[in-house]
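Predict the assembly for these two chains.
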Amino acid sequence: MPGPIDLDEVASAELEQRGRYPWRVMVCSSTACLASGGQAVRTALEQTTEAEDLVHDVQVVPTGCMGLCSRGPLVRVDARGSDSTLHGDVTAAMGTAIIRSRRDARVTRETDGSALDMGMPFFARQRRTVLANAGLTDPDGIEDYVAQGGYRAVAKALHTMTPEEVLAEVADSGLRGRGGAGYPTAKKWALLAAATGEHKYVVANGDEGDPGAFMDRTIMEDDPHRVLEGVILAAYATGADRAFLYVRAEYPRAVERLDRAIRVARRHRLLGRRILDTDFGLDVTVRIGAGAFVCGEETALMSSIEGRRGTPRLRPPYPTERGLWGEPTLINNVETLANIPAIVADGAESFASVGTAGSKGTKVFALAGSLTNTGLIEVPMGITLREIVEDIGGGIPGGRAFKAAQTGGPSGGCVPAHLLDTSMDYESLKALGSIMGSGGLIIMDDTVKIPDVAKYFMEFSRDESCGKCVPCRAGTVQLHGLLGRISDGQGTRRDLDQLESLCRTVRETSLCGLGQAAPNPVLSTLEHFRSEYTDLLTDQESSDA
Amino acid sequence: MVSAHAQATPTGQRRAASSGDHEAGHPSGDERFAIIDKALTRGRYAQDHLIEVLHVAQDVFGYLSPDVLHYLARELRLPPSMVFGVATFYHLFSFDPPGAHSCTVCTGTACFVKGADEIVGSLQETYGVPPGTTTADGNFTLSTARCLGSCGMAPVVVVDGEVRGHQTSGATLEAVGAALGDTPGGSPEDA
């Protein structure tokens, strides 16, 4: 059996390799940039480097998401001894020009105007922990991850900490679940640690189903080893011996990269038996979904991992008591797990220094809709929505006005303009009738009709209802019908009353989170935008204030 | 409640490799079943690998025919009702042959806000097929997806596997027309 990885050696070899090139040219190869022509740019960069005989001078690195998707394809140049430059809206011709500017040691006209100000709020206001490597490293190389300090947390935990100490560190950090509900992570871990079974399982939930959310996809695609490191640490702290990464089938690249990361990690003795020559061992397997939103619910997810229909069941018993194949199981969101390496490596205090009293650390948001800058951001918890929309997002384009921000997808709600100064943390959003959710953040301008949005989400919940319980299966159909009638201008006050009362019934009596949360987009918009509904009623003259 | 059939252990091994109560492979001799057999072997014929194997079968055949589903039920020793039940539960499995060309319109929230519905409407009108169906000549399939995760470039469509961002109805119709060689299957006149 080969010896375990020597982290220092791999890191210094990688850094030395990088140091040989005066120029490191990073080209974003994530989905959005590829869709806007990123592949042609990468080819141009590589071919020109070759053609101009600069292969010892310029290192072209395909990286993960650089964040500012609306300006893609993005190319970043790190030149030794000078500041980094980030180019936006890069074409193949500009890619060629960028490399030639290295040859000629001067900037050519072709790249004029493409340089983005890296001090702009979109970049300056972010604080990257989970996404620290995204856009800077090659996701397929374990060397890159190790050179950035990767797997140090696993080495530290396995060699110098007891499982109880790792758990205590996570407890002290105040980390809460990033999948939406915000349950304290260490509390869940403690339940699994205390449970006994023939096997104990850790599951990374990568079934990111909210339409408008792509945080977890980016984390899995761009830094798969960080996810694995989080899983290893979770398993060590809780005494688990098997782990699954459950990824939705719509993310084939994430599946491929996680699979490769697992193989490479095994080869380096970071997985399998006797990890890093300790007594701790862990097997990790990727499981693929097949397109069912409800599988993000933990009991449905387990059912799907077992190869069955992804229908939820009543809790308790919670998965930490009775999970996969009846054994104790811990299910954490991918982003939650991706926070663990930094907590263990740098300590709970450093993590807890960011955020608010009740919501520690950072949160990744997928920023989309009517905004100048859209893409992926990671910001400290407690940042205001206004800062995200106006500073980071660059405001609403086309002279339109901000109307509402939708958080939490089909389970969440809308935040109206007069509440733009809301702090983005679990409690504040909940108090408004919305939720933090997994991080989808859709900005809507004043052209959007709110009842249409509510109808859109209800259609989604109706389609995704698994059909097991009546309130959700039949209720979402009725709610969608009522919303349709109202948004078509055919509704009456009675319809509106029925809509509200049925929303409460579905919320209170559904079996799982999908049904319980399905009325949220309706209830939250009724609270903040009631007149948009009442104005559409046929008997609106009697609508009271 | 959990059916007895779903109690396979993660490592499976329910089926002794040497159990010889039926001939290996599919009676038709269709070589594509060999690829499925390989996937079954890789999963050690464990019943909890059903979804993985369904993915492989759909990749190989393009869709899941009753014949393929019965074959999987037999090989995994699962009741056909369970195999059909699982396959029909998940949206990504399809039971009709796909068209030669395809266009998938993302209808995720960001794309919805930016007018994905109009794009679906214009495709439906031009080719005379509602989403999720194929033209009568089998040339073109129109479908929708719940978020392709490229919300930064909404609205997004995928034409024959190629992702296109910042779309309008006109741009998408042009791209689909080009993919079909400007001879739309089931043209508006035929509809």
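The CA atoms of residues 114 and 134 of chain B lie 26 Å apart. The beta strands of chain B are 101-106, 133-134, 140-145, 157-159, 162-164.
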